[in-house]
Design a protein that fits this description.
Blueprint: E1 2-4, H1 10-21, E2 26-29, E3 42-44, E4 57-60, H2 62-65, H3 69-78, E5 83-89, H4 99-113, E6 118-124, H5 135-141, E7 144-146, E8 152-153, H6 158-170, E9 177-181, E10 187-188, H7 189-200, E11 206-208, H8 211-220, H9 226-240, H10 248-253, H11 260-266
Parallel strand pairs: 1-2, 1-4, 2-3, 4-5, 5-6, 6-9, 7-11
Antiparallel strand pairs: 8-10
């Protein structure tokens, strides 16, 4: 059995789907007893994880497990789990944004490496799904307002992360490996917005705003201080120096990483008020 934390997140959900396609027995950690996951997936409330036996491997999402990660890994080792695959961030190797967020990922990496299980670390660039935050603006105004238009990142499709995670969870030769997962195209925010516009079949402008304006808007929308801190801190640094680009996805999957344009096309309905895949 493979245990997926953060099972209803964009990477966790896709990993569950890929494992189900291979007939792999999977336990999905979620508070939602009615989560829409593939048939045969065992739904496990976070409070029930400690009582779960027979887990061979764990996909560990630090944002989903939080402070419980240490206890989870200790329990895993005690009950015979073989390996852990950790979702981390490229900022551990290529610092950007506020140092406290990088230290959080580094701490969980250290925990995974020292827990006694075989480990694989997936350091990920910014998820393509993060740009779904623009959907409301696009539907309401037909434009995207943002700070730091010159910030460039090699955004990764979360489906590619899940595909690599599935390999690492099911094949032991990825033990003690750290992979840097990015897309293969370094794009600015206006270029990403233009790709969404192409998917929608109409021009879509990017309107530059100050960081303070964006921060105030995010806080007024009820977001916690951490959200604009994460976003704006990273963008400020990526405006000075672009985020990293690697071919690790290509090497691991035997095909190119999906482009942002492909992701935008596949999710175009989300930007018009429909459901996205």
């Amino acid at each position: 059995m493979i245990l997926i934390t953060g099972a209803t997140g964009v990477v966790g959900r896709e990993t569950v789907r890929l494992l189900a396609e291979t007939g792999t027995k999977t336990a999905a950690v979620t508070r939602n007893r009615h989560a829409d996951l593939p048939a045969g997936t065992q739904l496990v409330h976070p409070a029930e994880v400690a009582a779960l036996d027979g887990v061979e491997a764990i996909l560990l999402s630090p944002r989903a497990t939080g402070a419980a990660a240490a206890d989870l890994l200790a329990r895993a080792r005690a009950t015979g789990t073989s390996r852990v695959v950790l979702l981390s961030a490229v900022t551990v190797r290529y610092p950007a944004g506020h140092a406290r967020f990088r230290r959080q990922f580094q701490a969980v990496e250290d925990l995974a490496k020292g827990c006694g299980l075989d480990w694989t670390i997936l350091r990920c660039a910014d998820f393509a799904a993060n740009t779904l935050a623009w959907a409301g603006q696009i539907q309401a105004t037909g434009a995207v307002r943002g700070a730091y238009p010159r910030a460039r990142t090699s955004t990764i499709d979360e489906r590619d992360i899940a595909a690599v995670a599935t390999l690492a969870l099911t094949r032991p030769h990825h033990a003690a490996r750290t992979y840097l997962l990015t897309g293969e195209q370094s794009l600015s925010q206006p270029e990403k917005v233009a790709a969404i516009g192409e998917a929608l079949g109409r021009p879509l402008p990017f309107v530059e705003a100050t960081p303070d304006e964006i921060r105030r808007g995010m806080l007024a929308a009820g977001l916690a201080d951490e959200v604009p801190d994460r976003l704006l801190g990273s963008l400020a640094d990526y405006a000075r120096e672009a985020g990293p680009t690697t071919d690790d996805v290509r090497r691991l999957l035997g095909r190119p990483a999906r482009t942002y344009a492909t992701w935008a096309s596949d999710h175009h309905a989300a930007f018009t008020g429909g459901e996205h895949r």
